Amino acid sequence: MFVAKYSAEKQWHDLKITPFQDLKLSPTACVLHYGQALFEGLKAYRRADGKVGLFRPEFNWKRMVEGSQRLCMQAPPKEIFLEAVKQLVQLDQEWVPAAAHSSLYIRPTLIATEGYLGIRPANEYLFFIILSPVGPYYQEGLAPTKIWIEKEFVRAAPGGLGSTKAAANYAGSLKASENAKANGFTQVLWLDIHKKYIEEVGTMNVFFVFDDEIVTPGLDGTILGGKIRDTAIQILRAKGYNVQERKLSLAELIQSNEAGHLKEVFGTGTAAVISPVGRLASDDFNITINEGKTGKISEYLYKELTDIQYGRTHDSNSWTVLVE
User: Fold this and answer.
1) Quick check: 3 and 132 in contact, CB under 8 A?
2) For labeling, which of 42, 101, 123, 251 is most exposed (least CB within 10 Å)?
3) What is the pTM of this model?
């Protein structure tokens, strides 16, 4: 694991790679009481040529910086973040699996460690990175998932932490997710605070394919903008698809489906890459999408993205960073 400390007095110091080990924290550490905690998620891939590559790691650093500003935390500089990821992966590159659909998951984390009881931003932080080999995120793979539309709980509110990868966001999502899984659904589709507009699906961004456009909710402060979301938009637009980032109401979705205009739904995220949705349900309706089959846009995007990540095709956008 990589660790680095920050204090207002010393700035960033004690940067080192150490054996994986427990952290030592004061019982009064600010992260335990006031929730100053952020994390990121990215992967290292075993490419077709045997080399190891990262996919757009600078995106993750930028998002951590933005989240740190919102939580009044001190983010690591870009050179520390990127170099730490590369050196740690290089050292542990034998753990990068070669099996299909597998990768090495990378979890950069930032927490407030100052021992202090009182409501103010901490003056001391710990930045650390851990690694773990992983297989496919969903057992279904690219098979369509079943999603429950959540109408009781909300993930985020305007002016809150929805656009940050704060640990608190995930704690707040667990209840709805567990309820959905207990009823046979893979995840939940989150609505806005008024239960009117669609926001995210589980821990992923969501896309809807209609006759003449592909819609994904715009980033208005309550939605976490993902790297795969951003990449998918670029790929689709370059291919000539009409991709719109706008509000999409649940009523519009239902009406479009009844009129036969809804063709596909899929989620995007680092863990699953592309996750097609075959069924959307709530207590008052049940929608089967594309006869419960994986759609052509989902298949196209999954292949395009994974071919770039695993080095099976030319990366014309220079999204790949080799670990050498």
Assistant:
1) no
2) 251
3) 0.96
Q: What is the largest CA-CA distance in the chain?
A: 63
Query: Would you say how long the chain is, in residues?
Result: 324
pLDDT, residue 137, reads 79
Return the DSSP state at 144: P
Q: Are strands 264-269 and 205-209 parallel, antiparallel or unpaired?
A: antiparallel
Tell me how far apart the alpha carbons of residues 312 and 176 are, in angstroms, rounded to a whole number.
38
Alpha carbon distance 235, 240 (integer Å): 9
Q: Which of 79, 83, 85 is nearest to 41 (CA)?
A: 85
Q: 14-34 in b/e burial notation, b at 16+ Cβ within 10 A?
A: eeeeeeeeeeeeeeebbbbeb
Could you give the residue ranges of the DSSP H alpha helices within the chain? 30-34, 57-70, 78-91, 167-182, 227-238, 250-258, 296-309
Least confident of 133-147, 240-254, 294-308: 133-147
pLDDT at 138 over 80: no
Which residue reads 């698809």 in tokens? Answer: 241
CA distance 160 to 174: 18
